[in-house]
Amino acid sequence: MLNWLLGSTTSGADIYVDLGTANTLIVGRGRGLILNEPSEVMVSDIDPKKRKILGLGLEGREILKKNPGHIIVIKPIKDGVIADFDATRVMLKTFLSKAIKKISLSRPKVVVSLPYGITDVEKRAVTEACRSAGASKTFLIDEPMAAALGAGLPVKGATGQMIIDIGGGSTEIAVIALADIVFCEPLRLGGHKFDEIIVRYLKETKKLIVTDQQAEFLKLKLATALPKKNIITETIQGRDLDTGFQKTETISSEDIGMALSDSIQQIIHGILNALENTPPELVSDIIDSGITLAGGGALIKELCAKIESEVRIPVRLAENPLTAIAIGGEMVLSDPELLEKIQIEL
Ligand code: ADP
Ligand code: MG
Predict the structure, then answer these.
(1) Residue 106: its pLDDT value, please?
(2) How would you write 1-18 as a 3-class SS string?
(3) I want to staple 324 with a disulfide (CB 3.0 to 4.6 A). Which of 150, 206, 276, 338 is the partner?
(4) 169 touches 190 (CB < 8 A)
(5) What is the pLDDT of residues 189-237, one digit of tens each?
């Protein structure tokens, strides 16, 4: 804030990293998207303590496909916190080095967005990983701010805006005004949890064992916030809980919608809680301007309609929910004044 009042001293930045729990996206100033890979580190299961890294991101997925039996997949950022510091450092350093090489920039200034409310230790680990990848300076910003910018919300204005980013490991419900996060409700809920819930639901209701990957497939095809509407189906081959034999089942959007209904209700509670904790004048702005959803989880069918009917505020989906955060980050790169204003101090 003080920096902002005193005027801008930076000249913007070169590279932005959306360090997501499911996907890491890197954009370059004036270059658009230069990297989009799963936030995953594949290690050998032969001696898990030694943690021999076999691959990361897309390359790691290829290795996993060829040899699924002996690989553990680490998702270093879980539930909106850095769960595995070493894996996060290696992953961030590798991705960033790759991006820097791709656009042949030496000693770039880097902006990284992080889940809201992250600790100083986590911030330092990220800054250090960027430095070791060649960054001359690292700025940290809050994810919900990048999401709001990328979704096209006028964050600099005095009017209150609500942005909800439903990612892989966390959901952030934030109220923004004057380029500040006025309130943020982080929920430890997101796409990965939805997959786990689908696995459990199919086991309990259909005695069908499926993998997390199969559950994600069903979610992408069938997940809906209104289970009774426009029912569609998919067939899937899992294992029978009792016999262990393979069996083919037809799963409907109603099944998946029912499985996810409690989670969707938790998001709705979070929104109501955020509204209760927001100053009344900003709440009336939000009632007028509506709520915006971003992040991969926002792509659950009928989610906008469901939230709208329960919260009674108009809800819209960001144009590109999976890339909105990266688009927002790219906007920050060429706006030094905004970057100074929104950067998180260490
Ligand atoms: P993060 O920012 O945490 O990396 P993303 O915003 O990239 O997360 O979202 C990834 C999550 O979104 C994954 O769990 C993925 O399964 C989920 N997802 C992607 N597309 C859809 C869809 N069409 N319907 C429901 N979930 C989706
Ligand atoms: Mg994200």
Answers:
(1) 87
(2) CHHHHHCCCCCCCCEEEE
(3) 150
(4) yes
(5) 999 999 999 999 999 999 999 999 999 999 999 999 999 999 999 999 9
